[in-house]
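Thread title: Can someone regenerate the structure for this chain?

I was given the following input by a collaborator and told the matching structure tokens would be attached. They weren't. Posting the sequence so someone can regenerate them.
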Amino acid sequence: MKAQILIASLFFSGLIFAQETKTDSTKTKNIEAVVLTKQVFKKESDRFVYDVSNSPVAKGSTTFDILKQTPLLSTTDDKTLKIAGKNNALIFINGRKTNMDADSLNQFLKNTPAENIQKIEVITVPGSEYQVESSDGIINIILKKKMTDGTNGNMRMSSSANKFFSNSASASINYRKDKLGISANLSGGSNIEPQKYDLRNGSNNASTSSIGDINDPNQNIGGYINADYQLTDNQNIALTWNTWFNKSYDSRTDLFNITKSLDNDNNTVTNYSLTKGRENAKSANNSVNLNYEWKMDELGSKLNVNASYLNYNRKQSSSNQTIASDIFQNVGLISREIKQNQPQIINNFSGMADYVKKFKNEFTVAVGGNYNKTKTDNDTKNDTFDYTYNVDGSIKDINITLSPNHFVYDENIYGAYLTLEKKFTEKFSGKVGTRYEITNSLGTSDNAQNPEYTRIERKYNNLLPYLSFNYAINDKNNISYAFSSRMRRPSFWELNPVKHIITDNNYIQNNPFVKASSVYTNELTYMFKNSYFLILNHSYFKDVITQVPLQREVVKDGVKYQELRYIRTNFGDKQEMSAMLGIQKSFFNSYLTTNFNIGIQRNVNDGYLAKDPTSGDMFNEFINKSKSNSIIVQTNNTIRLDKKKTWFVGVNYFFVDKQQIELGLLKDLMSLDLNIKKIWNDWTFSAGIDDLLKTNIVEIETKQADGTYNYVKNNEFNQQVKVSIVYNFGNKKVKKVRDIETASDAIKNRTR
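Best answer:
Regenerated them for you:
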């Protein structure tokens, strides 16, 4: 994991409306294509529905382009999608969760064309039948249902430029003949992800400042093949294979450090140094899923069974050198070098079964279960080389410290759910359900320096109820309410007890003792004329999982230095409350279509930490009992320039006010994006610029009562120029047989 993951997970984990995301975020599978029509936005039962079929706006766009313009959805980093008030947005296709890790999903969405979407459903509070964690919401893409035989496809090429140039290309094909449907996608690209950091921390006695760049080159290739065969009129069997490969060699971290400390006579000593980090990493994600579906009656009752295997393999090696310097950054002698080897292998076997029974009196019973067995193998090696020199500059001695750690984590999850849904009248419907989950895990390590890691065993059970109702007061007014309880398990990389070096005095520490957190959500929604909406949301998070900056003074050779550790741990509780007012409407005979949201959000944090849970070391206490109120504005506008619907201009804008998150005060973010599109027969040409004003830069500042402070500024060079060309070919009515959920979907989100 690179130092930039510090920023990605550190900052965007607390950014509520802003767009993470991990993601694990987020962090997916077969996406066939996406599309728009008369843009109708309405509330149905437990979800918002955005009808986008047949609109030329989608032509030549990617799935990601369309999603980030959907009401209630947003992005601030052009990587992760979020639902207003939600930490993450999970992608589903026709009710089935997609099947890639977060990094792969981001590239996949940006390389998948958007021609076949019928509508997009936004489920802000998912029911018990969905396997989701934390306060995750769901984006469900419904594809068009045209079943004629034939072949079609499309090809896309695009380029973008911020600090560096990036290129990508993709090709998709669909084939349908009688009972057999085959769909495939291949996409890839290369880019260099630039970031500029300004990191400062310290106290009245000692401080450290690190300023510099990280340039991370990436090469990606991946895709999927899905074969679906209709056994009978009511039964199908399908086999799906997904793959994604990433190579990131010669990733470079270059920081200039200024360290101020006190000697034994309390005189200030200023030292200058350079941190040079070099990293090579590559990862492969492969999964296969076998699916069987039996449609049991005309009302829609069905049985769905899945069996999956997932393999994730990441190899990562890096070196981090601390080099003496002067104020002008002239290079001196190496004082310390840390070489790290941090591989990770994840194997998962999963099975799931769902049975849905529909009755004639508008009553539905859904029952199901799932089993996930996951093993992660992390054979980590951290070797530290401390150099001393003779007067002539030759090496006098090298002190080598070896820190191997082979951490193996086994996890078994058993889950079952029951959901009852009833339409009582044409105006009133409700749903009630519960999910019961049993989690057993065992982590073992051969780390001799930390014997407490030898065996870490956890067993816990969770009962997760759900309730919702929807009342259509009349044809213009609709009101709905939902309550949900969920849990958030730590990602597998968060549990691996390794250090990720930033500078000589600063590092990130993962934590095998992190436990699952709980989330309780209440949401009330009012809709008027299917165009105007008000959403009131309250979420309570218990045992929040985050990174906490712990600081203390340490003495080395009689000099006091400031040490900073970012510790991954459970950090108290928090509450998020929001009120969002929005409009989705077309004006001037559809020459202007606007999606506008404005709201206020209140964050209440209650966290305290003074002891490093991974080592027992004591630090200055880090307290966050802050509250904040912030304004959020988002608008996406499409302007049609001609009657033939061939020229379009897009104007998109968001503003996120400063707010208190777990780590301190996150300063305001803003971005203005412009684009233009031309449609010519089967060709689509587009160009645009993101973050026109260069205002989408993350800044977080923390000050404690004892005088310690921590400041981070992260510029990801979000201003970029983008151009693309898309060509569609073949029979445009071909549709694959169906889309399939896989049994390992819930595990995907916890890989990198």
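The first strand starts at residue 40 and ends at 44.
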